[in-house]
């Protein structure tokens, strides 16, 4: 039946989608515009970066602000710190066990006469590299597996998720130790071991989010419009689950850093003479009572980095997934 304007009044919503070519991206954009319509009025104000962060709800509490500042500072130290420190972190001298404030050695020296400040600054880079690289690997594997499983459903989903469940049933730290011990100590084996062990947790989250999005109308419309599966996954579903996934990935970064430091402490991570916070704790524990700074300083920095990642992850989760849909 027609109303004289060329539209069919008797055509339902689903039938209309099936009757006309539909762009999944257009429907997704319309859906996002509808969800964000209430926030559109304030977009003309606060063009600065701080105003944008506040509008997103990032860094609203003081623990989150402190954590953001510390996390950015640690990353900057790892990137540019070695260029600003003239002391050689691996050069051994006769000036062993110098205390705080010694001339030319602000934080003193260790039992081999190596500058402690230089070792702390240079030791940040290996730990952060392993943490970020292994987290990125876990994010790629976990998100890919979970995304495909949640979208495919049926037998494919059951098989993939049972494999994920088996990996989760095995203690992560033991899995990392086995993988690293099998491949041999070193940066590459450490990144692969930590990344593979952390991927299952991200896969479960990605699967739950992808399954939820797959049931929505805009995915049905994309399928009816003839959109291929890879495009649906990458251009339709992935952007809509990115918020919660990013928050979880940042929190996973803290676990990766803890694993990297722990394995270095056990001698399975970054190998000497390369300075590393985990190995520095192991090397300094012999002097825990006579020179506690050799243990306290690297251990405290590692702890603060892990805590900061957790607070930043919580902050991102609250900002990007305010309804707590996961």
What does this structure look like?
The chain has twelve helices and no strands. It is an all-alpha fold. Helix 4 (62-84) crosses helix 12. The protein is elongated, with a radius of gyration of 25 Å. The protein starts with 12 loop residues before the first helix and ends in a 6-residue tail after the last helix. 35% of the residues are buried.
**What does the oligomeric state look like here?**
single chain
Q: Can you write the helix and strand succession as a string? A: HHHHHHHHHHHH
Let me know the number of strands. Answer: 0
Distance linking N and C termini: 43 Å
At a glance:
The protein has 326 residues and is mainly alpha-helical. It has helices spanning 13-19, 24-35, 49-56, 62-84, 116-152, 154-169, 172-183, 187-214, 217-224, 229-265, 277-284, 293-320.
Which keywords apply here?
mainly alpha, single chain, 12 helices, disordered N terminus, 326 residues
